[in-house]
Amino acid sequence: MRTAIILPAHNVEQSVRDTLENLKPYQERVLFVDDGSSDHTREVIRKQGFHCISYVKNQGMSKAILTGMKVAKESLFEAVIILDSDGQHSPKYIPQFERELQYCSVVTGDRFHSFQNLPSNKIASNAMGAAILFDLYQCNIFDTSCGYKGFRLDEELMAVAEASFSYSFVFDILLDALNRGKLISSVKIDCVYPASEFHYTKRAEIISFISSFQRYVMKEQFGKLGLEELQESVNVPENFVFKIQNLSFYGFYLREYDGYILQTDLVKLEQWVGENIRK
């Protein structure tokens, strides 16, 4: 199966260098999409001989992925692997993704196969998505927001990408696959959250996540789960409490960053994960 490798890139002039070096074995089928960077991202990428499409104005991650998908389809690739260009995702996992794509329609990275040494707020933000997915689909995917994904190119998925915006594609692809009964698998990958950096969840990511559910699940289910109230709180924006699967998630809005710190009872969460996700 001919597989293209697509990397959206935005202001990664400093952090993309190791990724470029590690992508050398796949160079002929790698496409970077520079999403309106204001630094020298595209120059650094092109200097290393990689193909890079560049936008003048930032279009958002989902539109960057769509651009790459269109090029891949025109070049007769049958599948695509997407990963971050800032060093968060190691290209060493590409062969595993390719193997999984031999029999699965969608493959997603799993950064949270262990909670050891991970920021509790990032665990909580992914756990909230996992709890909603489990409630709706009895699905055991925990890392709902991982941008390291592989998928087969088809017309239905192109339509999904056309309708995606901001960060929504990484969520849309999972919900579309679940609704269509496609086979989904995961690959355990390294989780990179340096202790020297401040970690939070962007409000735009939460908005994209909620909007995906709004499009892909029935209105009655959306309201019953309390997602309408959550959406209202995030749109304001304001602090929120969201309860699902006997778990409570507390969102504290950070105006300076336009993002959220999420918290939950980690002991209770680990018990829930053991009973429902990792069983």
Brief digest:
With 279 residues, this protein is α/β, with parallel strands linked by helices. The protein is 40% helix and 20% strand.
Helices and strands in order:
Blueprint: E1 3-9, H1 17-22, E2 30-35, H2 41-47, E3 51-55, H3 61-74, E4 79-82, H4 94-100, E5 106-110, H5 120-137, E6 149-152, H6 155-163, H7 169-179, E7 184-188, E8 201-202, H8 203-216, H9 219-224, H10 227-235, E9 240-244, E10 247-254, E11 259-263, H11 266-276
Parallel strand pairs: 1-2, 1-4, 2-3, 5-7
Antiparallel strand pairs: 4-6, 5-6, 8-11, 9-10, 10-11
Helix pairs in contact: 7-8, 8-10
Question: Top keywords for this entry?
Answer:
single chain, 7-stranded mixed beta sheet, 4-stranded antiparallel beta sheet, 279 residues, 11 strands, alpha/beta, 40% helix
What do these coordinates show?
The structure is a single chain. The chain has 279 residues and is α/β, with parallel strands linked by helices. The protein contains 11 helices and 11 strands. It has helices at 17-22, 41-47, 61-74, 94-100, 120-137, 155-163, 169-179, 203-216, 219-224, 227-235, 266-276; strands spanning 3-9, 30-35, 51-55, 79-82, 106-110, 149-152, 184-188, 201-202, 240-244, 247-254, 259-263. A 7-stranded mixed β-sheet has the order 3-2-1-4-6-5-7, with helices on both faces. A 4-stranded antiparallel β-sheet has the order 8-11-10-9.
